[in-house]
Amino acid sequence: MDAFIEAPPGARYTNAKVVLVGETGAGKTDLAIRLAEGRWEITESTHGMEVRPLILPQPENTSQGSNAGIFREVWLWDFAGQPDYRLIHQLYMDETALALMVMDPQKDDPFENLGHWEKALSSAVKRPFTKVLVAGRCDRGGMTVSSQKIQEYCKERGYKDYIDTSAKTGDGCEKLKNLISQHIPWDHLPWTTTTHLFKTLKDAIIAIKNDGAVLVRMPGLCRQLKKELPEDPFTEAEMRTTVGLLAGQGLLQILAFGDFVLLQPEYINNYASVVVRCARESTDEMGNVPKSHVLEGDLDYKDMKRLEAADEKILLRAMLQTFMDHSLCLEEETSEGTQLVFPSYFKRDRPELPTHPAILTTYRFSGPIDEIYATLVVRLYYTNDFHKDQLWKNAADFKTHGNKQAGFMLTKTADDTAELAVYFEPGVPEDTQVSFIKYIHEHLLKRSETEERQRYYVCPHCQTPVENRKALEMRLEKKFKDIFCAFCGKLVPLMDSIEQKFASPEFLALVRAMDEEAKRKLGNESLELILEGQAKAITGEAGHIYRELTSHDHGIDAEIEFNNDRGEASGQKVYLQLKSGDSYLYKRKGDNKEIFTIKKPRHATYWQAHAYPVMLVIRNSEGEIRWMNITDYLKRRGPNTKQIEFDGEPFNAQCLRRPAHCVCKRL
């Protein structure tokens, strides 16, 4: 797609992300096609997300002021409206410049489902953006509410404009394009200087993208561009800079492994939507999908357009890494293998209990409720202080170190807010209760738009709950320190030790440490996915065969089979034990050598039983990958060795092309 007008060298370049959101059936995709391509076609509900270039009229104010000399491109992102996709869409709304909120004018309450999208955008977009309210498919009839009500809604919710449209007849669509150009907050968008080389490379990359290419490796992209641009010499570093700028603007995505560039970022969203749908439709109603099914692409895609098998597996790994990076699912080991569990998609209702644990605190909050709830469950699961007991539809039970129950229940309300009730069974230590509710409090404070906490009290003398909420709230408002128990008449302290600890800096520091631990564990799982992807890509680049193995608990993650000079499988192999992150190595005092600790002695026994070498492959936090022959090391040092002096050499395609000269010398 060309800019509005040809950009001379030294001018400034920017692009804007315009999103189409709203409930399914409102006509978003029809409208996207009309705006981008000037035509109408009958469409079915969008699955996932689609992205199209949008050519707009040149704004009148570009010849002067802060907008002078800026050349613009616009991309239209069409998000599916079905509830299944909401959790994933939240990840791709950042960088939005303008939101077209599309509603169905024939509904009795056309504003009914806009609240979710308004809150989702407010949570995801960190810089100023604008909103335009759009009635779609108006050829089927006019609005069911008055113009005055529409104006009041727009004013109350901060909309810049309102317009009626029909993608079928084209009515209102040209006017909408003018409104888009007018209301994009150009002054707030990042820009870069459009040198001749930047523009040449950018246009060539966008052309490759528009031709339908999805996934490329940086070296391959560089070779293709050099072939297509013989008159414009450039270095690979200059190309990588251009790719980085385009990725920063959301036009493409650089994967964390294998040196891959995803030219169509919407594909991750689309594949993620398939996984989420499979989790919701799981036969045991527990929101789970086997991890192996995800990584192997063994899913029900229905009518979704899929990639080639090799590209699909790379994309699925990147998608799973996205899930882990955003704490949307947890990994749980079961008798049937590793399961990916999505807390937001449980269908199994919690059974009625004879006596429910007493509620200590409730929270009322707003924002992207499904994401907030899912990330809360996942992060608590990865702390050291609480262990998942049972998950239910909108409820989660955890076990404390003393094997006592702590949990919460979520209740959604019609105005797109929710209430979270936190409870404990009798006997949970006070400090444990405080750390649990404080963790929840900080999580909601960070991720929700509003948060209102309400404490419940029980008489310490007769164990009777204080049920007169009005009297309780009045005494708290007036800062009274206690209230009389309606049953025994004794005083119930309001600023009790729980409240005192809750307000203390010590417990704030404690829950922040808990969250850092959860973040570290999730990060390690994400880094393992990155390392596996990199190992696979490096092996493929070297022309050999990479196979993932299922014997993780034995200490082997994959094998490499070397091809011979004719490109045929040779039967010569090495096995890989993959570890990612600096936490696996420490520097020994005295000689400063890097040490890897074998935590499970049975792994060492298993490694030495193989006919082919087992290679320890470690990726540090800087992304450097090294490997060493752990089998030979154990034979030299003895079978009971627990610590390995890691002196690995670089693990790369060049090494794998010359196995006789690399660390796998037994080949």
- What fold name goes in the CATH topology slot of the largest domain? Rossmann fold
Question: Could you estimate the helical fraction of the residues in percent?
Answer: 25-40%
Main β sheet profile: 7 strands, mixed
Q: How many structural domains in the coordinates? A: 5
What is the CATH domain class of the largest domain? Answer: Alpha Beta
Strand proportion, as a percent range, falls in 25-35%
What would you say about this model in short?
By secondary structure, the chain is α+β, with helices and mostly antiparallel strands.
Characterize the structure shown.
Helices cover 34% and strands 25% of the residues. The protein is of the alpha+beta class. The chain has five domains: 178 residues, Rossmann fold, CATH 3.40.50; 68 residues, Arc Repressor Mutant, subunit A (Orthogonal Bundle); 79 residues, Arc Repressor Mutant, subunit A; 117 residues, TATA-Binding Protein (2-Layer Sandwich), CATH 3.30.310.80; 131 residues, Trna Endonuclease, Chain: A, domain 1 (3-Layer(aba) Sandwich), CATH 3.40.1350.10. The strands form seven sheets. Strands 1, 2, 3, 4, 5, 6 and 7 form a seven-stranded mixed sheet that branches. A hairpin with a 5-residue loop joins strand 16 and strand 17. The chain starts with 10 loop residues before the first strand and ends in a 10-residue tail after the last helix.
